Amino acid sequence: MSRSRINGNFMDKTFSIVANILLRIIPTTSGAKEAFTYYRDGMSAQSEGNYAEALQNYYEAMRLEIDPYDRSYILYNIGLIHTRNGEHRKALEFYFRALERNPFLPQAFNNMAVICHYRGEEAIRQGDSEIAEAWFDQAAEYWNQAIALTPGNYIEAYNWLKMSRRKESH
After folding, report:
1. What tens digit of pLDDT does each residue of 131-141 get?
2. Membrane-spanning residues where (predicted)?
3. Which of 2, 42, 71, 156 has the most CB atoms in a 10 Å sphere around its CB?
């Protein structure tokens, strides 16, 4: 039985019903439909904290999905799981891969910036201010890109950029 059929969350059920209707009425290949089913099941598992199951579904969706735009969201969600699990190097890799396919994912830039900022804070705690500055500069680059894509979002990041004098003017 598909994961979405056993999920008890109202929003997940609603999403699943709408998704199933769309899969029936929108002309698409059976591979794309199957890929979307795995993607949907991966999102459901991820929302429940079942990250290993979510990854299995996402990898299966990646095997089937050929559209670069759709693949970017699968890669992004894989990055989210690695971020959640503290696997920052892997997370950054998947965010980069998502952005290669879709350079208009401000949330990927934001998450990359958050990881870099965290790494900068770690470097400060370890007494390495030079490494910290490099991480903070990288965080600033990613936050500036996220903000350029979605002005008005990421207010805390915007304020940090201004206070740290790293805000790029656009």
Report:
1. 999 999 999 99
2. none
3. 42
